[in-house]
Amino acid sequence: MWQEFKDFLLRGNVLDLAVAVVLGAAFGKIVTALVENIIMPSIALIFGNTDFTSEWAYKGITYGVFIQAIIDFIIIGAAIFIFVKVVNTLTRNRFVEEAAEDEQIVLLREIRDSLKNDSLKS
What we know:
mainly alpha, 2 domains, elongated, ion transport, cell membrane, ion channel, Mechanosensitive_channel_CS
């Protein structure tokens, strides 16, 4: 049973998930700081007060909190989308360069083999 538990913990998927959770939490803090300290104050300069939580309420129903959560969600989602898009672009470019390098190696091998065959025929 101990060996199975060890195998489970050391399996790549579990480790990848743990790293993703830690990085996600750290990235969440960055995005929250961006929203609370840069984006929302910038919006406040344009539209006035952006704190919907205290102003938008009706007979104890604070629907402003819900509206604030929706705005935060949209901004956080957009920030994560842009971050993932940039990472995917950078990663894709690296793989394209590696693939191009592999094609060059294949071509060089073909030339080498062709030269070997020509020298054997002579």
